[in-house]
Amino acid sequence: MLILDGKLVAAAVKETLKAETDILLKNGKRAPQLAAILVGSNGASETYVASKVKNCEEIGFTSLLVRFDETIDEASVLQKIAELNADDSVDGILVQLPLPKQISEQKVIEAIDPRKDVDGFHPSSAGKLVQGLPSFIPATPYGIMMMLEFFKLETKGKHAVVIGRSNIVGRPMSILLSSNIPYGNCTVTICHSHTPNLKEICLQADILVAALGRPEFVKADMVKSGAIVIDVGITRVADETAKKGFRIKGDVDYNEVAPKTSAITPVPGGVGLMTIAGLLKNTLQAYKTNTGI
Ligand code: NAP
Questions:
Q1: Are residues 104 and 165 in the same domain?
Q2: What is the DSSP letter of 168?
Q3: Are residues 85 and 49 in the same domain?
Q4: Residues with active-site annotation
Q5: Does 21 reside within a domain?
Q6: What is the position in ligand 1's atom list of the atom closest to the CA of 275?
Q7: Angle at the Cα of 44 from the Cα atoms of 210 and 103, rounded to 5 degrees
Q8: C-alpha 139 – ligand 1 centre gap (Å)
Q9: Protein residue with least CA distance to atom 34, ligand 1
Q10: What's the pLDDT tens digit per position in 194-221?
């Protein structure tokens, strides 16, 4: 059984991005810049944004963190996005989700200039992805594709089952795996909360992607022997014995599932790190397109 180590793959991706950035700087160009908007002080969101900013710095990108109070109104967030859209020094814009109730996530997503949509959530990016046109790929599925490529896990002709159909993970993942691209060409089944016989469908999977947000939902009796299992789930589960008072759990019961698989991502240390790699790659892509370099 191969452990799909996100740390290893993310480090390799970041090394390449850093080398490209070093060359840009050496040639007197400005660094790629990512702007992140964080509303409120949700613990998980704080951690994700801090990690994104830190990763930018590590590879020589600059970053701009815009913080708003939890009670901020929608118009102010949209106004800030408009400013960032107009700012030529900003290549990529991300708004950390979830947002407080008074702000429409959809409006915010659609307000971002598609040329700066490094999260790949804009309908324009999603539409291009569906049609197989060059676009920003949502960072998590993008990171998973990089992982499949890094470990040369053949996917052609395999049956992939994706649990979850969100716009940020499940749906784009299913599109990529079914596309006629390297590490695609799977026959894909996409499952959701109304799927009957989920266990039977999962048992048919050569590649199982769990992205439902239910800690340790996937048990050994749902996994075919020798399957590749990609665990996207990240849930904070309260645990008084842990230093921070919680532990991060994936959607897969790793201890019982791992021995049955041919390859599996751990949580933490798997897909989460690849998501940041995907975001950084998209940011460099945005920089190149927007500056013409
Ligand atoms: P989401 O928007 O809540 O979507 C969850 C999906 O799972 C929905 O399509 C839902 O079905 C389906 N689902 C829920 N319960 C189910 C069940 N019992 N059986 C079958 N399907 C079920 O979540 P998300 O944003 O895609 O995130 C999923 C998980 O990935 C979360 O734990 C999240 O924290 C994590 N995540 C991790 C990363 C990373 O970097 N590793 C990035 C993003 C998200 P319906 O559509 O029918 O409701």
A1: no
A2: T
A3: yes
A4: 52, 96, 119
A5: no
A6: 40
A7: 95
A8: 15
A9: 234
A10: 999 999 999 999 999 999 999 999 999 9
Within 172-240, strands assigned E span: 187-191, 207-210, 228-231, 235-238
Those residues whose C-beta lies under 8 Å from the C-beta of residue 278, and which sit 6 or more positions away, are 137, 138, 139, 140, 141, 142, 143, 146
Both 67 and 104 in one domain: the answer is yes
Tell me if 174 is assigned to some domain. yes
Assigned domain for 205 exists = yes
Indicate which CATH number applies to the domain containing 102.
3.40.50.10860
Pick the last residue of a domain from 81, 114, 147.
114
Q: Tokens for 226, please give them.
A: 């020798």
Which CATH number belongs to the domain containing residue 242 in this structure?
3.40.50.720
State how many domains the chain has. 2
Residues 77, 197 share a domain? no
- Is the minimum distance from the CB of 193 to ligand 1 under 6 angstroms? yes
Token digits for 231?
């665990």
The Cβ of residue 205 has, within 10 Å, a number of other Cβ atoms equal to 24
- Residue pLDDT, tens place only, 209-253: 999 999 999 999 999 999 999 999 999 999 999 999 999 999 999
At 194, list the tokens: 């109304």
Q: Who contacts 258 (Cβ-Cβ below 8 Å, separation ≥6)?
A: 1, 3, 229, 264
Q: 235: Cβ below 6 Å to ligand 1?
A: yes
Considering the entire predicted model, what is its pTM? 0.97
Dist. CA 232–CA 169, nearest whole Å? 8
Report the distance separating Cα 63 and Cα 171, nearest Å: 29
Residue 288's alpha-carbon distances to 33, 92, 282, 292, in angstroms, are 11, 11, 10, 5
The whole domain housing 101 covers: 28-114
Question: From its phi and psi, is residue 120 left (phi > 0), alpha (psi between -120 and 50) or beta?
Answer: left
Distance CA 265, CA 250 (A): 10
